[in-house]
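Problem 12. The chain below contains 52 residues. Write out its predicted structure in token notation.
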Amino acid sequence: MLPERLATFGDQYREQRYLTRSQLYDIDYEFSTHAVVDTRVWTIFERFDENG
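Solution.
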């Protein structure tokens, strides 16, 4: 998750004093999709390193 997006959720939490279920799902979705992209990117780099 991008730091700016995480800061947005932090701002919402400080303003509301809680996060809604929908906001929590949004956080979870962004973390999980970003993790999948990171895994794919690192796999590509690892293959590149192995094959020189």
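Discussion. The chain has a mean pLDDT of 77. Students who got a different answer should revisit the alignment rule from Section 12.3.
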